[in-house]
Amino acid sequence: MIPMREIYWNIPGHLFLYLLFFPFLVVWLYGIYRHTRMILMGEPAAVLGSMWDRLKGVVEDAVLQRRIAKDTLSGLLHRSISWGFAILFIATCLVALQDYLGIPTLRGSFYLYFMSLTVDLFGLVAIVGVLMALARRYGLKPDRLLLPRKAKSYDALLALLLISLVTGFLIEGLRIAATADPWGRWSPGGWLASVLFRGTEQTQQVALHQVLWWFHAAMAFTFIALLPYGVGMHVTSAAANILLKNQEGSGVLRTIDLDRAAHFGAGAIDQFTWKDLLDLEACTECGRCQQACPAWATGKPLTPKGVIIDLRDHMRLVADGDESRKMVGEVISHDVLWACTTCGACHQECPIFIEPIPKIIEMRRHLVMEEANFPETMQQALRSLEERGHPFRGTSASRTDWAKGLGVKTVAENGPPEILYWVGCAAAFDERNQQVAAAFAKLLQRAGVDFAILGEEERCTGDPARRIGNEYLFQALAKENIAILNGYGIKKIVTTCPHGFNTLKNEYPKLGGSYEVVHHTQMLADLVKEGRLRPEKPIDGVVSFHDPCYLGRHNGIYDPPRQLLGAIPGLVVKEMDRCREGAFCCGAGGGLMWFEEKIGKRVSWERTEEALALEPQVLASACPYCLIMFEDALKVKDAIGRTRPLDVAELMAQSMDM
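That's the Iron-sulfur-binding reductase sequence above. Prediction below.
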């Protein structure tokens, strides 16, 4: 006997199903249209990168849900629901194919193995997923989850999905019981449900089957129709956002065409790009970004999730004609905007690649370039950049004072070297970081590297200006530097500053400056591997390494600093709980080096306390800003005597008895 079942058994008027679906489809389509119309309010945005890579990203992060699965419970319940829903949807479409085209999907081995066994198992998995989601919401209640005002939308969707899944199995169970289906055991969920009805009359089973069948259809259609009207919108928009995600890197900001721009930054919702607005629509409100945000963790008013949700709600009000609230200053407060360190933790954690940082920077650009309304300490730093080419007001040092007596060559005097050492403002003008520059230069000399510096010709890369919001000043500094570098024919650059590294490597190419740029930890690690540097003198004690945000998260460089520390005899490396991709910020990025934290706890204090819990003799880093922040924090914590903040290059120099 050939395995099969009758299509639409006991539903003689099943064609009415398609008429029933029509109004629900209209509601769904209107919701999609409304969201699309809102997204298209935004300005043009280029979608770069290969479509093949984008499709692979959809498979990895929308289908396999790689990022969501980093949290075991979340990954399990989301995969259970989404994969279960997807398989059930495919099965429903296959039934429609048989109904319309006569393709025998409910017959033979395919019917048993896929349409019965596989579909039932995935349906059961989906029910388990929904129950896990409800248990987490009402049992575990993680702080990072939905805001209260959004809970009802999410609860309604979960309830509708659960009802649809359960009634689906009850319908299958009634059919198996009423027909004594010999293939019923191939549908484990339906077969278990059939046990509930074995004591009832067949006429009752048939009647109840019809009622439940239409009820199930109405609930399933309602679920689909409501998806675009709450957090369920992410079912479609999240996949679209993954497909269209930024492929330039999280540390790269949008370049403004200053000659053609009608405005600078975003002072209104329609001044964001359409991709920014798609980000708003795609947000699942999972709160992973909030949980990782150093500003939120230290009592600041900034939560990346809050920024995205508040902008989304504002966008919807504006789309409906309500423009009563000013976006910058009212919807998003100034305190929120100036709390962001641009550390990239929110970008790293978001499972669907939403990027809050560019939106914050666009609003900063509006405040700085159009309203001239930003913190005084930042204004002083930018004035110093304009007047002196660096942000360190009050210093009397020159760009070459740190190199006195070291015999470091300049490009102007000796011509283009094999590699240019880009010293950076902090290493040139901050007394503490001058020691790092000297240590690194000595290491290069010991290894026989042909290097030189620009000396007085070097200017700030412009990173602080760009992150604070002054794009004009950034581009002016960048173009001046690029002209000098290109004039000398510089090909390769090494720098001790991750912020300069990120800017030179990722942002200068758009302005005509393309170079091979390496961080000093990468170069030193290579020199050790090649045997040109041999750290031999033991340094006894515990060291904990802090991952600089613009080296780690924004550029994916984690191993070279650790390889160097591991090569030094005697050192015992202890990792902080928050390390590598999950590292906690020092608090200096995003221009906050020149900002006084007046709300909550200092970010640097939080990070330093985490390090001190390991009782290290050395708190190591590979960034001048991190070093400055830790020097200050260790003094405040009265720990400078027992824990020394050192750059990895300084430890290398000590181990080589330099």
